[in-house]
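dumping this here so i dont lose it again. seq + smiles for zinc ion
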Amino acid sequence: MHFDIPLTLPKVVILMGNSSRPGSIVIREIDHTPFEVFGEQHVVRELIWNGIAARSFDLVRLTDGAVLTDESFGEYPTDAQIAETLRDHGVDVELSVCMFCGEEVLPATAHRRRNGWVGNSCCRDDRLRATE
Ligand SMILES: [Zn+2]
């Protein structure tokens, strides 16, 4: 693309390049492990912003790319928060209970164990592996 910026004013160009407000531009997106709810793939998408350490997390329906979160989460959402977001969109998910910590977990993201479910967001794989 061509911009009509006079070459005699390099300083102005640099200032313009740095003028983006911190936290105003997504510099990187990280899709976490997708999971299926009623036949549709969903993913928690982590957004990294320019100039700030804080990240935000959105719930995205991969089928059509729709962002389901009205307001991004400040940290990786719990299964209960994911379920609530899905319910806001008319997806009536049922929660189970994590056999380790008692947190509500989404069967779609949890691991099936002999005696029940192990949550992905609360107890994750390390705990699962440690008990096997
Ligand atoms: Zn748990």
